[in-house]
Amino acid sequence: MSKWLQFCWYRLRMATLRDIAVRASVSISTASRALSGHHHVQDETRKRIQTIARELGYVPNSMARGLRRNQTRTIGVLIPDMRNSSFSSESAVLLQRKFQELGYGTVLYVTGYDRETELRCIDRLRFQQVDGVLRVPTSAMSVDVLNAGPRSIPVLEFLRRSQAERYDGVLYDDEEGAYRVMEHLIHLGHRRIGVITGPPETSSTKRRLSGAERALVAAGLGPKALRVVHGEYSPAAGHRAFETLMAVEPPVTAVFATSAQFVLGVAMAAKEQNVLIPQRVSLAAFGDPEWGQLISPPLTTYTLPLPEMAMTAALLLTSRIEKGPPEDGRPVRIWISGDLVVRGSTAPPGGL
User: Fold this and answer.
1) H helix and E strand count, the chain
2) What is the pLDDT of residue 5?
């Protein structure tokens, strides 16, 4: 049989370790060690085996390994939004890439901040027998339903946490981020600062307000310096909140929008009211959307290392899947801080 016909044959029926071992005149165990990076293989032999594997189009059968372990090599990912949230959309792409690098596929569901939708998505993930679930919580709802049967499914909370105490988490430090933004605005001289934030019952909202209030206390300012408006995460809510803040007498001189969706609404409302940024109102945000540097003036933000967070989350969740829970049963929560990036949208009251 010609090499070309051999190549086509192997491609059609999927090459195996045995095929590689026969072509390389080595044992199957040697071929396996060479392809897995084991050090007890001579370099020349390793290179020859790797070359043959590439020629045959060999792909490690991770699904077969998963079946032997009663695994599907699949991760369920639950996020609240893709359309408006730069955090969620960018995180979803990064997570998919990191899980793929670790040999896992992903099933993505968008819950739309709706409890019933999230419950239906969780039921589907249980039916699909995913090996683990990564969830961006939007409520205090527990996902214990995933473990109602005999098969335990690890759950990891990402970006923010729920009130449940049993889950691992890779989380950004909302409180520290809000403190840093407020500290910056106070240092510029602002004494009437509006904060546009999410629903009051969520952990992220509570932590961000805690950070903002802590910055006021550190600066010797009272609670009257802070004006808070809650709303769902959307540009429309940001628009309404800005109108509310500007209608109060005297109006605020700075606005801290705790999400990119709010920023869009604030920018639209400011344009409609001919409110110049930062000459009349300074604007700072939590999170660093790609367009934040393109608008005029560029947006001051508290940025988060999302690639680092995605890799940490992928490693932690796959470790739980492959090695099981820790012996002491205590969840691991990793808090990751970001950086304040000062740009042109913030200035002292009354302009530069």
Assistant:
1) 12, 12
2) 45
The model's pTM is: 0.71
Band the pLDDT of 106: cuts 50, 70, 90: very high
SS3 347: coil
Rounded CA-CA distance 58/171 in Å is 38
Residue linked to tokens 């683990």: 132
Strand 300-303 to 339-341 pairing: antiparallel
Share of the chain above pLDDT 70, in %: 84
Q: Domain check: are 289 and 239 in the same one?
A: yes
**282 in a structural domain:** yes
Q: How many residues are present in the chain?
A: 352
Quick one: tokens of 74?
């699949």
Distance of CA 16 to the CA centre of its chain: 37
Q: 109 lies in a domain?
A: yes
Averaged pLDDT for residues 126-141: 81
pLDDT of residue 4: 47
Residue type present at position 210: S
The Cα 294–Cα 346 span in angstroms is 15
Same domain, 100 and 191: no
CA-to-CA distance for 279 and 274, rounded, in angstroms? 11
